[in-house]
Amino acid sequence: MMRRRLLTGLTLALAASHACAADTLRCGSQLVSVGDRSGEVVHKCGEPVSRDVLGYKRSADRREEFQVEEWTYGPNGGMYQYLRFEGNRLMQITSKRGN
Q1: Domain spans of the chain, in order of start
Q2: I need a surface site. Which of 27, 36, 44, 46 has the fewest CB within 10 A?
Q3: In the chain, which ranges are E strands?
């Protein structure tokens, strides 16, 4: 019984640490994280290969509209990184292997 709890706890801890890794991106010796401003990302990672405006999103109270952008970095070791910004804030980091 104790062994099962330990194994379950270890599995959950590993899953949580893996999920955190998706919230950060290493640029040289710097890290960018979800929540960073676009200026911070450019300062740490340089200019992206491309910037695409995906559209606009309304705030929760529907009083403001935010531009949604996707920035592409890479290829770095065969991987492309896609950073999604909403209203100048980094909201999502995803990676995909290039063809």
Answers
A1: 24-97
A2: 46
A3: 24-27, 30-33, 50-58, 65-76, 79-86, 89-97
Residue-wise burial string across 44-75, b where 16 or more C-beta atoms lie within 10 A, e elsewhere: bbeebeeeeeeeeeeeeeeeeebebbbbebbe
pLDDT digits (tens, 9 = 90+) for 68-93: 999 999 998 899 999 999 999 999 99
CB 89 within 8 A of CB 35: yes
- How many Cβ atoms from other residues are within 10 Å of residue 81's Cβ? 21
Q: Which of 81, 78, 79 is nearest to 93 (CA)?
A: 81
| Claim: this prediction has a pTM higher than 0.70 | yes
